[in-house]
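Re: weekly structure request thread

Next one in the queue (495 aa):
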Amino acid sequence: MNILLLSMPDYFEHMPPLAVRMPNGALASLAGNVDDHHRVGIADLILRHDSVRETIVRLMHEFNPEVIGLSVMTFQRRTAGRIIDLARKLKPSVRVVVGGYDPSLAPEAYEPMNVDYIVRGEGEITFRELLRALENRGEFERISGLSYRAGERWVHNPVRPVHRLEDGEIRLPKRSARVLRGYTLLGRSVDVIETSRGCTYDCSFCSIIEMRGRNFHTYSFERVLADIRDARDHGARTIFFVDDNITLNVRRFEALCRAIIEAGLNQLDYFVQAMTSAIADHGETLAPLMRRAGFRYVFLGIENILEGDLQFLRAASKNTEHKSGNQAGNATLRAIDCLHRNKMYVVGGLIVGNPEDTVEAIEANLEFARRYVDWPYIQHPTPYPRTPMTQDFRQRGLITIERLEEYDGTTAVVRTEHVPAEEIEYMRWKAERWMKVRHMPAAFRHDPWFVLRHAPQMFAHTFRGITLRSLLGLENSHQVFRRYKTIRCQEREFV
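Done, posted below.
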């Protein structure tokens, strides 16, 4: 069969397509785990975010798929529905499958759509079994993790147990199935790798636990190194490890760094997500090893610098430093210092606008980001399906926006007990623009040619909404912010 796999064009404000265009690793993994006789194409629509309709029409004509699969996050749900409707008009007989975090946690939202099947949870084996059933006119009842339309009703099969990655059941991704080109991280070709899945923490904002439970499974180093080589051979010069929590097992991460060095793969640049506590507690030995292995950027899950907010986010234990087995306060500053001393850049992940936040609490976190992080990744708490945070916000009546296309993490859709949602977002927006400008010299050192070529576009994106009148002081920043909000709304119209 011809199978076309699509990721959505909707992007996070922190990842402007000019500078950051990441591949969807889940789709490449799906392609690598279907039976070999199928013809599979992957289209990451972020690469054509400004011509989505034309791209879909062309791919439907050239590929003539019998099955279309869409990977969807919550803020992409509206766009997914429009793409599905377009595909149905172009080929009414096409079978439509959806998967990813949002369909897994809110399958009921997809039942009214033009969808035939929902793959819940990890999709590789479920999708393979679905294709076999379609090909052989088989039955769907025994396919764990699958929901399907049966006449006028939907059937939701039992959940599929999470994969034990150590057993080799999940094959390598199939990057050759990608039909679009242009993945980049600040001018360097980028790809994604996973070395493990899962996390044993229970942060209130996280969808992972709701999707797969509290567990942690790892791939063998032999497979991870083969995956890195495959990404390199397909042109990648930067690798982003997308593990849910790679530093959950620090000794394993140290061993992985050594394996990368010994395999001669440390000529690539690596980008990783990490817990502050792990870096703070083990940074004296771990950070130098990471740098030797090629790590350049580290996304630190700081979450918040205020203890009360960390308790609400259920993230205190991830951000606590330990000395001699005892708790020794917030780990963030020590973690940042370890990374900076070893010439790595810190992408600071913070969440502002929690229920008890005041203007002063929000400003304290913004000031911390100004002083200590190299690139801000500041988000607002967002009530994604089935997370504990969502239940809390609903009970307290703090959700002010129900338009899911705005649930991108950088639109404040909830207020606090003290601050309106729009004011929270304004404070972040106003502070964050200048933090990004401050990172320009580091970006220039990373890839001077890219910055020289694209600096005007990057500045225009960061400061969109500014006019000559605002530069001359004839209108205030709140007016600029409202214009930015209008532009951002227009940017969400892809189909």
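The domain at 2-156 is CATH 3.40.50.2300 (Rossmann fold). The chain has three domains: 2-156, 183-458, 464-491.
Next request, please.
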